[in-house]
Amino acid sequence: MTAAMEFGRLSQWRDTGSLGEAKARELAARLELRARAEDETAAREEYLRLLGVVPGERVLDVGCGSGVVTRAIAQRVAPGGRAVGIDPSPALLTVAREYADAAGLGGLIELREGDCRNLPYPNASFDAVLAATVLAHVPDAGVALAEMVRVTRSGGRVGVFDFDGDSLVIAHPDRELTRRIVVAQSDHGAVNGGLARQLPGLLTELGLIDVRVKAFMPLEREPGSFYAGLAVRAADVAAQVGAITSDELAGWLAAFRAVLATGHFLGGRLHIFAWGTRPVS
Predict the structure, then answer these.
(1) Tell me, what's the pLDDT at 137?
(2) Is 269 helix (H, G, I), strand (E, B) or coil?
(3) Rg for the chain, CA atoms, rounded
(4) Pairing of strands 219-220, 267-277
């Protein structure tokens, strides 16, 4: 596969280990913006409930970023539990610590630098392990999934919440051009935009039992929302990989600005939560 066609080559989340402070704070702000949306908050509460996170447990958040999910886990494991976040980016971890302390949750949270494909924990270290909107950006995500299972105790739970790249919703009058933009974003803005569809089979192959799935469709209508911003970034990705021309990009963006100005915007993306239990040995 040529460099021009390499999946995920324009993903801003593919290799965050070398992020500088300014870029890390920009990406963290984007994560926090998404996290505050009503549908996102409801989805997060529901998949943590389905994963069975309860007080007293030790739970790992893989690829924790700014720590949105880590903080939600911390609230659920108190008292007596521990929320552990791991991320390859020291800069993002610095921001995550700031958010955790500001929320008064620093004492419940442990943050550590590391690669999800080589988790720095012994076997059976956690009651539950979760990766949320992370693995679609990770090369060799299957290795990361195997690591997640390895560090989960017998009878513990493993869950993955990720987006389906081809299911991006963008309200725009040019349907044909928007389709090209969505496909380009799915292929080049993520390493594997179709990973969510593979999750039940992958978790089953790794030996988990009672593997289940649930769909979520967060939607937003505000011009300053996460998905309004993602639509613009997706169009830029499409232009960079040659899926649309520069003239098509300019025309699409002009029409999109009109959609925003008239209050007709709707954006979102299908997410799938797949989870299962490690058999008791």
Answers:
(1) 94
(2) strand
(3) 19
(4) antiparallel
Across the chain, how many H-helices and E-strands are there?
A: 9, 8
- What are the distances in angstroms from CA 204 to CA 24, 127, 179, 213? 35, 19, 32, 12
Domains, the chain, ordered by start: 3-164+191-217+270-277 (3.40.50.150)
pLDDT of residue 6: 57
Which residue, 191, 192, 208, 190, is CA-closest to 274?
208
Residues 6 or more apart whose CB falls under 8 angstroms from that of 117 comprise 138, 140, 143, 144, 147
Q: Tell me what pLDDT residue 1 has.
A: 33
- The neighbour count for residue 117, using CB atoms within 10 Å, is 16
Cβ-based neighbour number of residue 124 at 10 Å: 15
List, for residues 53-79, the tens digit of each pLDDT value: 999 999 999 999 999 999 999 999 999
CB 165 within 8 A of CB 186: yes
pTM (predicted TM-score): 0.93
Dist. CA 82–CA 103, nearest whole Å: 15
Which helix (H) or strand (E) is 145 found in, with range? Answer: helix 141-150
DSSP-assigned states of every residue in 101-124: HHTT-GGGEEEEE--TTS-SS-TT
Residue type, 109: I
Three-class DSSP labels, 15-49: CCCCCCHHHHHHHHHHHHHHHHCHHHHHHHHHHHH
Under 8 Å CB-to-CB from 18, ≥6 apart: which residues? none
